[in-house]
Write a structure and sequence with these properties.
The structure is a homodimer. Chain A is of the alpha/beta class. In chain A, helix 5 runs parallel beside helix 7.
Chain lengths: ~575, ~575
């Protein structure tokens, strides 16, 4: 196996592919070097002077190692792994550490397996974490449960790379036995544990780290970055669609540089298509004043070191031939992307086929609800006031308000004063659970909007001012196997997210075009322009973020950390 | 298992040990910080404000992580692993990556097992490499052979950490199938391969690296350091007794700093006792102008990263509580050494007992030769000239000279003109092999010197001008199970190296005192003061270093790379 590399390295045989006269980033010692980069059988065999069977003149380009996304939920793109790859590989990303937290909440480890297998056909390495927090809380019904015992059973499965972000830091520092079991099982087999610990500091941070956690992508300020670095954490600079803290790059110094990596966490298809992926993060970092070579190191060698990816993230003999030739180290436009020694994209266009989709039966038809009727959305309360969730633009935090309500035929009257109904319909196990509440501030009227992306359990969340329309969108999503639906009281327009109710099996272009059409309809029907039309709703069901949320089991007061009645 | 760390980290329970008010080196982000370092059950649980069951005021000390020697042959100390630990642990070394190349040449994997088991009783982590070059060449008889198949069989044994320095770079770049099999077997199970590639550069270096080699400790100049760094190698700064290239530390920059580590390779007991170990390297580095924090990082975090030692090499929660409190970051005098949370040395004195020695039968009595007589050392040649090895002070390279010889009774006459006989007596397998030759320049007369340290096969090497004295030292070493012996033609004085003929089972002090006495005798008998009395002989049998060497099978011309006759 090694002989062919060695013979090519010694020029006894021509290398398969040579990038001639390339400038390239030396991530090991810093700086930009020049030479021919020789590639054979998936590996870099030498840098120097080489002839190749195929030669590409790179004299006007700069070669960098393939970019690595240190932490991403692929599901947030609403695309299949194949189509996700088709968007990001031409941007220069050749590997991602993916935490399939969303699909696993729907399907359990079958969701992990699906992401893993679906990624096999595309030229992207997907290192898959086993999600650590499924379900996110005990106050909701998820499609699956991965307790400590399940993690113990699966953490060493061949396709599992590490333990996904340990969001339940409260459980960790309070020594919740089941949470600790997950960490212990991971450490026992030497798997890396990703972290998520917003604002944790001091003794509590020390305690959290004592579960063997290695990374954090939630830092918001200098002191937090510096404390976490000093305590041995890798700081993930996040360049997501909504949540971003790439600005933390301004705290990089030559001394701490090696401990910063780049991730996207959650990034929509439209951003991937229009702005880019890690390449866009590099552009922003350089624009922020970060040295370009440092930025590249943060997205390559540092990430490889953080995750112990052997012989990755650098341009050197025996390293994986994952290479990106960019126009320059300011714009980072990928002119050529090489994965495992093969040219897989040119000028932003993929050269691989992602049209054959892996679609096992168990990821389809995951919306298990009975047929619903208008009656199911009646909100019958005794008094004349009720709690309402106040949605806040640009934030996943909500407010809690007490509102006066009128009743008509034993049903709260909505539509006036911007009040809407909100319901979370359990859609995994046919429990019949429907949590109901009131929503203020979203701005929509004259129908209903429903979606099966509802963090983190991904039940069906429906808002509207028309009981029948609410039933109609529910029934429509039941038929499409999930997705997003908008009813104007007459017709229902739907974007099918047929893979687990989270991702489309269509092409990136088709999915985006349908998504755009549906968004436009939602805005036409009054959704405030300052809201993301649908994704702003998807977090109203997440009972770990203040203040008032809703699950399939009812309203949840995050401050009290308990389910509460809609009535006062 | 994690609960106790977490509870201590949160101060719900007192930490077992707290280093109060310590300055400490933050290897992650650089710089010196201050705080209490709390330790429980072998791990650091927190840095901040802590109370402990035991508290030590460190307000006048600076705490650094336990030092790691990235590459060492313990055998070169001539001490058992227990006594080796007793010298280095009080100096602040808490872990070594050890390549038991010497003892494995004598005993095969039983030698590795011995080093591993003997190290268990002392507070030093010994990460054991499986030697890759046993025997070093096919032109000598070693005690054992580890071919590709044997490496394949043993590389994943529980106590084996990686593959030892792949010295046979010529074999690698020429695609020797057996050599490549060793590398392939190691890579297949994810083991790290150490390197040794003096002056290799360009395509040949690329080819060597294509065997998956990760480190080098042989760099002699700037260009070599920079090329190897740029090609992804970790540069080991070597602070041995004879071979040193710690000066390469002057090529450290903030950009490449993370890729330098510190090692000793071969270091004698006297240096360990008088000058120190990695602590001495740090002193020298700082004296050379290297920033002290950088020096510490090179001997801690960098090494941990190089060898993927998880949660080691830093002062942070969940990291191994391997800590050294030094007086300051210039002198690095270890006032307190903590290993796995226990205080194991104070003020340079070990607090652990190393007197109970692990001594399995198979490491003793390893000198298998018949009783020799004066006749065995007769050198009978036809002509009147012969080849002589010219020993060169301070170098392992030799010269080759043609000398006129007189004969008496069919035996070359020596003693005049500084000419001595040199013989290598095979001592592993009773083959009866005795390679004989002539030696110039050593300066000894009136007897014989013999030793069973003779790189790399460790046969018995004997020099002298008196056949009977040569036989006497041989027979004496046969009785002691190896060691070093000096005969003045009347009596034989011996230092027993009873462990595999390489290491003493006595205390470091006793071994050194006997060694000193023996050296004095050798110098009295004329050994040039510019030579190390015995170790200068130990390399005359190493047939990979120019120019003329000798093995149990005869004279070896390194240039021609073949055995040659003593006659011209």
């Amino acid at each position: 196996m090694l002989e062919k590399y060695i013979r090519a390295a010694r020029r006894l045989e021509k290398a398969e592919l040579v990038l001639k006269n390339a400038s390239f980033v030396d991530v090991f010692s810093g700086g930009v070097k020049r030479g021919d980069i020789a590639v054979t059988d998936g590996k870099i065999v030498g840098v120097g002077e080489y002839d190749g069977v195929q030669e590409i003149d790179c004299s006007s380009l700069t070669v960098i190692p393939g970019l690595i996304d240190a932490h991403v939920h692929i599901e947030s793109s609403c695309l299949s792994p194949e189509e996700f790859a088709r968007l990001i590989v031409p941007r220069g990303t050749t590997a991602v550490v993916a935490d399939p937290h969303e699909i696993t909440n729907v399907l359990g480890t079958a969701g992990c397996e699906y992401i893993s297998k679906a990624s096999e056909s595309v030229p992207l390495d997907v290192m898959l974490s086993l999600p650590s927090c499924v379900p996110a809380t005990p106050f909701e019904t998820s499609g699956a449960k991965l307790d400590g015992k399940a993690v113990e059973k699966h953490i060493n499965d061949g396709y599992i790379f590490g333990l996904g972000e340990l969001m339940n830091y409260v459980g960790v520092i309070n020594c919740d036995a089941d949470v600790l079991k997950k960490a212990e099982a991971s450490l026992a087999v030497g798997k890396i544990i990703d972290g998520h610990a917003p604002s944790l500091s001091g003794c509590d941070l020390n305690a959290y780290l004592c579960a063997g956690v290695r990374t954090d992508h939630e830092c918001t300020e200098r002191q937090e970055v510096e404390e976490k670095l000093s305590k041995g954490m890798y700081i993930q600079l996040r360049h997501g669609s909504t949540a971003r803290n790439l600005d933390n790059a301004k705290y990089i110094t030559p001394e701490n540089m090696r401990r910063f990596v780049v991730c996207t966490d959650d990034r929509h298809a439209s951003d991937l298509a229009q702005k880019g992926h890690i390449d866009d993060a590099l552009r922003q970092m350089v624009a922020l004043g970060v040295d370009a070579v440092t930025a590249v190191r943060c997205a390559t060698l540092n990430t490889a070191e953080c995750y112990n990816l052997k012989f990755r993230g650098g341009i050197a003999p025996f390293y994986a031939a994952d290479l990106v030739a960019v126009d320059n180290l300011k714009d980072f436009n990928a002119k050529l992307v090489i994965k495992d020694g093969k040219i897989v994209a040119e000028d932003g266009k993929p050269l691989f086929d992602s049209s054959e989709r892996y679609l096992p039966a168990n990821v389809l038809n995951t919306v298990h609800v009975r047929k619903l009727s208008a009656n199911d959305f009646v909100v019958d309360i005794d008094g004349d006031s009720a709690k309402a969730i106040k949605i806040i633009a640009g934030s996943v935090v909500t407010g809690a308000e007490t509102v006066k309500v009128e009743k008509v035929n034993g049903d709260v009257k909505v539509g006036g004063g911007g009040l809407l109904k909100i319901a979370v319909v359990e859609r995994h196990k046919m429990t019949g659970n429907i949590g109901k509440g009131l929503l203020k501030g979203y701005g929509f009227k004259g129908g209903a909007i429903g979606l099966t992306i509802a963090h983190d359990s991904h039940n069906m969340i429906i808002v509207g001012d028309d009981n029948q329309a609410m039933a109609d969108v529910a029934n429509s999503l039941r038929k499409t196997g999930g997705g997003i639906a908008v009813s104007d009281g007459k017709t229902v327009q739907t974007l099918a997210l047929d893979i687990a109710g989270l991702m489309s099996s269509k092409s990136a272009e088709d999915m985006q075009s349908e998504m755009r059409a549906l968004s436009e309809k939602a805005y036409e029907m009054g959704v405030g322009k300052n809201f993301e039309a649908f994704m702003s709703l998807a977090f109203l069901s997440l009972p770990v973020i203040p203040e008032l949320k809703i699950t399939d089991r009812g309203l949840f007061d995050v401050g009290k950390f308990e389910l509460v009645s809609i009535e006062n």
